[in-house]
Amino acid sequence: MINSEISAGNQALNLGSSFLERLGSQATNGFNQSLRNNPGGGGASEAAQGPRYRSWGELYGLSTRNDAQGDFVGDKRSTAGAVVGFGAQIVPHVNIGFSIDQSHTKIDVPLAMQTATLDLTQLGFTAAVDKGPWTWAIALVHGFGNVGSSRDTGFGFANASYGARIDGALTELDYYWTKGQSRIVPKAGLEWVRSTTGSLQEVGGFDPLMATGATFERTRGLIGAEVGHYWIFGTRILDLSAYGKFIDNFEQNFSSVTVSLGPQSIAVQGIGESQYGADAGASASLFLGNTARVYFNYDAKLRANLQSHQGTLGLEVKW
Hints:
By secondary structure, this protein is mainly beta. Helix content is 12%, strand content 66%. The longest helix is centred in the N-terminal third of the chain and has 26 residues, at 3-28.
């Protein structure tokens, strides 16, 4: 059975979701919005006199574990990636951004004696409009990549290579409530993601298999809040924040993979998340004056059948 193909398609879906949510966070940026609504608290109105352009770079690591579901025996995944992005204020209160995410994932399915790698490139676009304490943002993602799988047949390894693709969209509405240097930001969002993997033909080993491609699609709602506070030290500002979100995967469609060995075939059902779950995380940002900041983010996804933990180190420059 091709557990590794199911893992790769599911991982592409999850990487698309993670990128969308990071883009949404970049587009709304709680600390900057807090200053926008409270210029007396240490910052001036960005729309009035702040920098119009920004660029950023990030390095991140992601660890994911999926439990067994049906014919799928469970796996462990580790991802390393990098992001570069550019944003601009095109008119007051309207910002856009573009990002590229390049990642490499190692997938281990020990009970099925299978491994795989997923190299994925994602292109992201964001737009955000703010009015008073309200911010509305959208994020779009398109990704493409390649999967390489290996299966221990007991008489050598059967290998295969095939493509993967990801498309997704996110819309989010935030309300910024500030008091002094603290903020509470309720937020709600809607996310759609779809990934596909190509068909494969194994080469080598004993009795190499053929398998059809697979499609993974998910639509979900997100509702939660961010809390944050910043401290001013001369020309530097330290901002700390944390967030929590409730997740409702109200629509999930995962096609089965048909595996063929000679005249025989078997259908293996794709895997998904539990309908309900939670996201949580925290962020620390150090602003080096008005034009640069370094930051570290931690993000966790907690589901009945999936747990993932991601750390991100980034640098943002404005001008």
